[in-house]
Amino acid sequence: MIADSAPRVMPEPKMICAHSGKAFATKGCAVTSMPRPTLIETMTMLAWLLKSTLLSVWMPTTATAANIARAAVARGIRTEVQFLGPETGQEIAQRYGRADLVAANNVFAHVPDIRGFAAGLRALVKDEGLVTLEFPHLLRLIERRQYDTIYHEHFSYLSLLTSSRALATAGLRVVDVDQLETHGGSLRVYARPEESATEPTARVKGVLGEEESAGLHTVAGHEGFVHEVLRIKSDLLTFLLTMARDGQSVAGYGAPGKGNTLLNHCGIRSDLLSYTVDRSPVKQGKFLPGTHIPIYAPERLAETRPGYVLVLPWNLKDEITRQLDYVRSWGGRLVFPIPALEVV
User: Fold this and answer.
1) pLDDT tens figures, 38-91
2) Which residues of 298-319 are buried (b: 16+ CB within 10 A; e: fewer)?
3) Which CA distances in Å does 249 have to 265, 268, 331?
4) Which of 12, 77, 262, 330 could pair with 148 as two cysteines, CB 3.0-4.6 Å apart?
5) Euclidean distance between the first and final Cα of the chain, in Å?
6) Euclidean distance between CA atoms 60 and 37, whole angstroms
7) H/E segment holding residue 192
8) Domains of the chain by range and CATH?
9) Is the pTM above the cut of 0.85?
10) What span, in angstroms and rounded, lies between the C-alpha atoms of 37 and 112?
């Protein structure tokens, strides 16, 4: 069972789950029915989960990626391979019992039926339990011109207002929120069943106010975005065409989904970006979809010494700048295309 307390107080013992390389605890909650609190993670999407110990946490996990689910099972994580909706939520709750905490990190934007998914979350969580969701914040996407995060795997681009309304259809009320820097700016939303929900914190009211001030709750607030997108395209193409005219070589770093949106929208092919590199062995030796730009291992950069490296996962700017510091040894420079073209 999870008991209410002050929003920033997290007395021991805590349930902790790792995501995207970072840990979070159930905020404002103390676990009072130890030693076996139930945590359900609603999508086994990332390798971090397979490496987590979570010694005292029993984890039946719903996942739609069958290959990752097999790896999870091999690690001893109880896994259900099916889409979460009201029926599957009830079925899993009957089988394992309802959860103290249901965590859905970077899942909500990938779901075609967010009302059905919200109903599944409500079916899984106890009346006094907690649901947490993490997703990219539409306000930051528009504010920081992150249009390359709009791609086929995302069905929704969510504000706090729209996510709150979707959860409310299933009887879940948003009571708190964190603003994060992951994925260029994300929200972590904390929701409780109506039966145990408290009044929203000042943080919830603050984010809603910021969205409203930016015009995000109206159609008019979105209308200038297209012009910002075209400016990014124009600046990047001008840079690459100038480098090609001057005989300068340009290679890419990374092969993320966002990079494919950017390159295909700009019409960039291997005549302007000769190749890209990626640390994932699964991607090496293949080609980027649509552009057919080849993907190599990172060692290719030191072998060919390009004058410029276009960084496609710009959201990891600080980390990648450190990783690619050796590029400077031959006079190379890094190029970040978003939120505005920057050569460092």
Assistant:
1) 555 555 444 344 444 332 223 344 444 667 777 777 877 777 777 889 998 999
2) eebbeeeebbbbbbbbbbbeee
3) 21, 14, 12
4) 262
5) 51
6) 12
7) strand 186-193
8) 2-222 (3.40.50.150), 225-343 (3.40.50.720)
9) no
10) 30
